[in-house]
Each structure stands twice: as C-alpha cells, then as structure tokens.
Design goal:
The chain is of the alpha/beta class and 348 residues long. It has 2 domains: 82 residues, no CATH class; 259 residues, Vaccinia Virus protein VP39 (Rossmann fold), CATH 3.40.50. Helix 10 crosses helix 11.
Length: 348
C-alpha cells in the first residue's frame, strides 16, 4: 500500500482514522506494517495489502511472530482471537469458498470463459450513458468484490485510480494481476463492515457480489454511502428466475454449500454436460469454452452460502431510496447504475 491510501480508509469498528507503523517498505510502497485506530483496533499490512478484518492478525501466524514485540507495546492488543467471532459465523464459509475459486482460476487469462477484451466490453456496457473511458481518467473507483482483479486492471488501464477490495485471500490474485499498475491499490475487507470513508468515490462498481452477503439490500446501502455527490454506482446481481427454478436451485444449494470445496469442484466436472441445456449468465458453454471454465461457472453458482436473486424494478428502487438520480437499467439483466444526487444535470 501507499501512504495516500490512508486518506480513504477508516476503522470499520470505531469509524476513526488510522495511524500507520511501517515495518518494511520499498520506495513509496509499504510492504509490511500496522494500521491502528484511536480505539486501538489493529490491522496488519501484509504483502502491501491492508487486511482490515476482525482478528485477522491471528490468521497470519508468521507476521504475528515476526512483530510480536511491537504488538505487545500496543494498548489492548489481545494475544488470542476473540472467543465469539461474528465474522466466522456469517462470512467464513463465503470467504473460504471464493478463496478456493480465485486461487484455482483467478490467475488464468480466461475467467468464466471470457478473455480480457471480452471483460472490457462488459465494463463498457455497464458504464452510465454520460460516462466514457476518457472521463474516468483520474477518477477514484472502488471495485467492491474485486475477486480475480480483472475489472480493477481494466479500470486502472483506463487511467482511473482504483481500490480493489475483497473478502478473502484471493486479494493476492488481484494484487499479482494489477502489480504493474501504480494506480491500483488492493485492500482486504468486508462489504458489510466497510473500511472506507463515506462520500469518497467517484464511481463504485460491484459486479456479481452483493447477492453473496447476508443482506443484499443492506450491502447496497453501505456501498451507496461511499459514493460522493455527483458520483456513480453500477451493480449487477443475479436475476430472479421462475418459481420452479428458484425452488430447485435452493434445494440443490442446501447440499452443495455444505460440501468441502475440493469435493464440490470434482462434482462440478460431472455437471458440465448440463450446460448444453441450461444457459449461464456469463454465456459460458461447453461448445465454445474449455470444461475447466464451465466448471468455474458451476462452482461459483453452487459454492457460497449466501445467494439472493432480484428484479430490475427492485434494484432500481434501491437506487431511488438511497438518493440516486438518472437510474439506468443496463443491457445485462439486473444490471443497474445511478448517479448520486448533486448539482450536475443528468445527460439524456
């Protein structure tokens, strides 16, 4: 991370600003360090990535051992993890399932059956009517739920300053992908406990993410608070299907979400022939894509604990309720964007 990132960060618990202790750096890049708030909540910086999650320092044993003397000097630092950890109860399954996915597929050139050029075309389709590549240059963008980091890379190459943000250690994949770009920062954290200042971003992008939280509407509200006046937010969530589809998928996921990721991964290979008959949202298909890419689509659908489906009317109403104007339904189903109420007019 770079020091300028502190301008955008806050403690998700006490909402206060961070102080930074640097242990290891290279030029402007802080490789290892500690973020501490006024209430003495502590979060490590490891491999240049701020890890802003509850008790996360106890998951990184080598870091904790390496700086044990420095940690002991911090007021209220707890040697052990909290006995009751709400994060583990609600989010650990989701974190682990997506970590498996991004470490398995995230480093590839083809993701969900799409090349980088195809994903760039998707990004352009999800921009508001009055936003172009040219006027994204220099803007601050949050890629909320960055996963593999492909979209963060694309926005960074457009000249925007980007914060790639995700829940699990898949952020390592996003960092490797975006390392050549000096204008992309990577942060690990939770959308339900955001570590960012309100009214900060010119553009919040969240593609296929918030429907994997315990409360999709609440996640939307939290992200919308980060958008500055006259800024934009664009999201895509899973569309609602027929009654038969909704019931059948809920029943199947009652089983698949309880399976070990490696077992589910193997079973997904057996399910690939079903894609000859079932259309995927990514249009991944065994006639045109390698089986391993088809497997990713199936795994992504059946692995995480939380999954909700929505209508375009429902999502559009969320925007209105949070003070957005110029709400647009975009070409991809249940993909909607809006502009935060401000002084600049909407372009028709």
């Amino acid at each position: 991370m770079k020091k300028k990132l502190l301008n955008y960060l806050k403690c998700p618990i006490c909402k206060g600003e961070f102080s930074l202790t640097i242990f290891k750096s290279a030029g402007e890049e802080i490789i290892e360090g500690l973020l501490a708030c006024e209430k003495h909540f502590v979060y490590p910086v490891i491999n240049s990535i701020p890890r802003i999650l509850p008790d996360v320092i106890h998951r990184h044993i080598k870091f904790k051992e390496r700086y044990k003397h420095e940690l002991k000097l911090l007021p209220n630092f707890k040697e052990e993890r909290s006995e009751i950890n709400i994060f583990d109860s609600f989010f650990l399954q989701t974190q682990k399932r997506f970590e498996f996915q991004w470490l398995k597929w995230g480093n590839e050139d083809v993701i969900f059956g799409h090349t980088k050029d195809e994903d760039k075309h998707r990004v352009l389709k999800m921009l508001p009517n009055d936003v172009t590549i040219k006027n994204l240059e220099g803007k601050l963008i949050l890629d909320a739920g960055c996963g593999h980091g492909r979209y963060s890379e694309i926005f960074g190459e457009m000249g925007a300053e980007v914060i790639a943000f995700d829940l699990g250690n898949g952020v390592e994949v996003a960092k490797r992908r975006t390392d050549p770009l000096n204008n992309v920062h990577v942060v690990q954290g939770n959308i339900m406990e955001l570590p960012f200042m309100d009214n900060t971003f010119d553009f919040v992008w969240s593609f296929g993410v918030i429907h994997h939280t315990p409360d999709t509407r609440a996640a939307f509200k939290k992200l919308s608070s980060l958008v500055k006046r006259d800024g934009y937010m664009s999201i895509w969530v899973y569309p609602k299907g027929s009654l038969a589809w909704e019931i059948s998928q809920k029943l199947i996921r009652q089983i698949t979400t309880r399976l070990h990721p490696q077992i589910l991964y193997g079973l997904c290979y057996m399910a690939v022939p079903l894609l000859y008959f079932v259309k995927t949202y990514s249009n991944t298909h065994p006639r045109k894509n390698a089986w391993k890419h088809c497997v990713q689509v199936i795994y992504d659908w059946y692995s995480p604990k939380y999954q909700t489906h929505h209508t375009e009317e429902e999502v559009s109403e969320w925007y209105v309720e949070e003070g957005f104007k110029c709400v647009e339904v975009l070409p991809m189903s249940t993909s909607v964007c809006g502009k935060k109420d401000g002084v600049l007019p909407c372009l028709e």
